[in-house]
Amino acid sequence: MILQTPVQDGKVMQDFELEPLTAGGDHSQKVKAPPAVSGYGSKDCVNLPSSTAVSGMNPPFVKFASVILDVAVDKLLDYGLTADQASVAKRGMRVEVPVKGHLRMGYLYSIKDTPDFPKVQGINRFVVESELITEDLFELAIWMSKYYCVTLRETFQMMLPAVIRKETSHKQQLFVMRGKTREELKEHCENIRNQSSSQAAVLDVMLQVKKGILLSELLEQTGGSRSPVNTLAKNGWLHVDIVRVDRSPLINEEYFQTKPKVLNPEQAQALSSIQKTLHDKRFATHLLYGVTGSGKTEVYLQAIDAALKLGRATLMLVPEISLTTQTIERFRSRFEGKIAILHHRLSQGERFDEWHKIRRGEAQIVIGARSAVFSPIQHLGLIIVDEEHEHSYKQSESAPCYHARDIAVMRGKMTNSAVILGSATPCLESFHNASKGKYTLNTLNKRADIASIPSFTIVDMQREFERNKGYTNFSEPLLQGIKERQAKGQQTILFLNRRGYHTTLLCQGCGQSVGCAHCAVSLTFHLGHNHLACHLCGYTVAPPPTDCPGCRKGQTMKFRGVGTEQIQKALHAIFPDIRTIRIDADSTKHKGSQQKLLRDFGSGKADLLIGTQMIAKGLHFPEVTLVGVLNGDAGLTIPDFRASETTFQLITQVAGRAGRGQSKGEVIVQTSSPTNSTIMLAASQDYAKFYEEEMKVREMFGYPPFSSLAKLTFSGPSETETRQIAERFRQQLTQYLPQDFTIHPVIPSGHAKIKDKFRFQLLLRGPNIYPMAQAIHKAREQMLIPKRVHVLVDINPTSTF
Predict the structure, then answer these.
(1) Calpha distance 712→726 (Å, rounded)
(2) Using omega within 30 degrees of 0 as the cis cutoff, is the peptide bond preceding 477 cis?
(3) Is-contact 773 794, C-beta < 8 A?
(4) Residues 282, 436: contact at Cβ < 8 Å?
(5) Which of 53, 51, 73, 65 is nearest to 120 (CA)?
(6) pLDDT in tens, 724-781
(7) How many CB atoms lie within 10 A of CB 337?
(8) CB-facing half-sphere around the CA of 90: CA atoms within 13 A
């Protein structure tokens, strides 16, 4: 891969070659960098007090800058730089510029000697003293804009959190310190106690503190006003200074220091391979394929230690916030004071402080979810993507539809960093890359320490229904297993990937379920709130209707389907004294609630944990010896080419929560398809066999990794108009795509309507992403699409549903 800095010797490089390292394969394509040919002529020039319009090369401008705006002007605009500005200007800096009579924010893209228009305006001001978009992130943004078919403006908005783009300041508070010695303060306190009890109360507190105290805490302890503090400070008895308050989410967390563990031979070999890459300061991607409980995290920790000793920082990605808590605890116990946290449940203030701590180089280890891949890390040397197969690494709802795993690999290449992709069930594309030698494969076949692989039982639920003479949520082996674990003081996890109490409310007369008024989806019944709710838009109906809204017949409504809420209630009916915790999107709405529930379960405050896929991976509970998978084949019915892979991964991952301590683990999978190949291979934990079978199917039908995919989703308020525009766009694409590419027909999306917007999609399939990206770009230029119809381009989608 050739990467040339777009700005070199004051000129914009027009070409640079980029090799995508994603699932689409090994493709290289010449890509044009955005040309700096746009600007505002004299008719657009506005004389603002803080900017000057000049002609040509006249003073005060000594250089000129191309700027990418935050607003929807997707072209570069030229502005002048004074001598002072030119001396500090860097690519990636946040700037404020005049645009048609208004001041707008943007990013400095390049610096050059001459503008592309005879009359330009000056940059109004630099918002920060140094660049917000660092050099490696700038190169990454250029690659992303081409690969994911988005503008640089959209890419920068993705990279920079909203709180950073705003001119927010650090939180500051007043800190009170002694202005004289303790003896002098004590004497003064006694002298004024009868004349000014409020000042004496302040001095009493100040005599007890070590160095000082926050003013807010001082006033809370004295119960008084700020006036006596001001008087004492004015007379020199106290000093009051402004201090910056660290709003780090780690400040109040407790942890214990731990030391590195002795690695087994497999772990040591994997670590040695990674360390060699670090010492050579070169790029390489290591796929750490290890069975659940094989000690991948310990390999991560010792690899990070090796990076730190070389003076290089680490970026650690985890797929969901549920994994963040336990990961943070383990990492803090090993690396005190060097960690920053980034995930979507931080407050704006916490996110602001953590981001700037990373930018200043105060954090050498960054742990976070998907968007943390864009954190401005100094001296990056190691990137770890834990549970790399997880779909939560993929952004699919808004542009750019990037995959954090693929961005991590590309960022690793741009910074000469070692990249570790870890999983017990690697994405098929990643394992394919390893089998072809594109990635280095490191395998961990044994569980670490004394833990052993759990035993598996597949239960045919059709037989259970016959034996119970009707539907049942629990098989006899599962109930017996729960009873035995409760008696032994051990713990159980039950997995059901459906929240709520009932999944539908069905009319037995007309056969229609009660659907959402705004989405094409059935409503889910939630017993706790006694309402029907849409899980796509939040629409609710309370109380549930007793008459059918469709055919208007009465007393024909029946609930169908099972969710986690019903499972919890049913268990308490069967085992009255059982202690349960439920973790799903309903029980973890409040900040910190998920961490608290996991901590409670880990400390033994519950016998059984019920949850959705939020509990299916990465969690470590040594006392869990039984895992039950309810309705294990549910995901196989989704019309998506990844359905089998996703089902295999979920069952394997949730099974990995069992038997991670001294006691042997057991997994019971309840299914109506006991002979299904995916279910059987997941039960036997045979990833190699599953990979072999699934790859044959993928190759037969030409799906990734044997092709690259792009999914275009069209959404709009009019069903007819949206479909027509999708069809016209498809016709445009046929003019630009080579013949070896396939354009699938326009079809309704899996969810054909969401939030009153009708949705249609079409798939593009071929050997290379770039011809698709270029065809999409040309079709957009040629076709006028009304603003009410939105087009979302998803490159290498995780689902075609």
Answers:
(1) 9
(2) no
(3) no
(4) no
(5) 53
(6) 999 999 999 999 998 889 999 999 999 999 999 999 999 999 999 999 999 999 999 8
(7) 9
(8) 13
